[in-house]
Amino acid sequence: MKAELIAVGTEMLLGQITNTNGAFLARQLSDLGIDSLNQQVVGDNQARLDAAIALAESRADLIFVLGGLGPTPDDLSKQTLAAHLGRALTEDAPAMAKLQAYAAQQHHPMTANNRLQAMYPAGAKVLPNAVGLAVGALLTVGSKTYVLLPGPPREFEPMVLDALVPALLAQLGRGQVMVSRVLRFFGIGESQLVDELKDLIEAQTNPTLATYIKPYEVTLRLTAKAATPAEANALLDPLEANVQQRLGAYFYGYGDDNSLAKAVVAALASRRLQVTAAESLTAGSFQAALAAVPGVSEWFKGGFVTYANATKASFLGLDLGKVNAAGAVSEYTASQMAQGARAKAGADVAISFTGVAGPGPNEGVAAGTVWIGLATREGVSASLYHFPGNRQAVRGRAVKAGLFALLRLLQGRSAHTTFNA
């Protein structure tokens, strides 16, 4: 079969974002033995999108429209395809119920444009959106098959893997299922991870391995095709065991929707421990990451943001003279911040952050230098990191390094690992 991909979005034509969805989908189609011969990028314009669909029909069997399924006026993909095919839009009841529940939670009325996210061309198979609100669709008309997919990668990728690929396998009549496992790693960059798995990647047939970059971390998707889920998992088990033997020190969990913050909260809950934090460099970003996880309030009652040395001393009960003497960015200050925060909050464990985010050095300390402290009832320690990147990157990497260190501590492992991402 021949496929053509049409990415929709004026922002791609302006160079504001890159069409990463096209590359992702092309890889999945290649794994299925489907040739992706052409790709188009069109702006948010109904006439030009209609022309792009007509062009694709002249040379492809499978036509994918990527993006433009949202509620804003420039989201026109499903309306354009429905009109092109002479189909009405119809409503998917589960998606509408999800939209209504979301609106009720937000205390906002359901508007007509929001309802469009639950609509699809009549006669199509609905592709559910596990992450977002706009459904996708797969529709065969004569010899052509049309697919609508959302634009945001965090919605697009799970829909492709969990809904589209199984639907295409069924349509191709291969009698196969596809099972994937997503392994998440922190503290190792993609290039090093690929190097560690080079022999497995070069020899892959079924199952396969694919790496994906996330903010300051890497995910690895293992995928197997077989007649049944049990047979697919039997193919994945030895491959994962091999990967874990090589990279287990950096592994922290499974799943597309997992995160270091979620893993930390789950570990706190399993051990029924309270955590607090004292942040200088990260200015509350660590606490914000924890607070984004549902149910965290039982294990995190609050923390401290202490930029100036005098604030560190006042808020955390530290000796200002000793902090000044040691320096704000030091092992002593990081340790004392963690110990002081734990004592003040009455928590079981505390974490602290102090460092230089940049853009230049501060008090003779190079940008990217970060100390992260950890305190428990048994004692206190601090670890030194040197993070690359600009100010935002240093702060982002520090937050994730702190989450990973805390997770390893809660799991009874060494809290510090060399940071290679």
TrEMBL record:
SUPFAM superfamilies, alphabetized:
CinA-like, Molybdenum cofactor biosynthesis proteins
Q: Which residues form the MoaB/Mog domain?
A: 4-170
Gene3D superfamilies the record matches: 3.30.70.2860, CinA-like, MoaB/Mog-like domain
Domain of life (superkingdom): Bacteria
Q: Which family does it belong to?
A: Belongs to the CinA family.
Annotated protein name in UniProt: Putative competence-damage inducible protein
Q: Which organism is it from?
A: Lacticaseibacillus jixianensis
Instruction: Output the lineage of the source organism.
Output: Bacteria, Bacillati, Bacillota, Bacilli, Lactobacillales
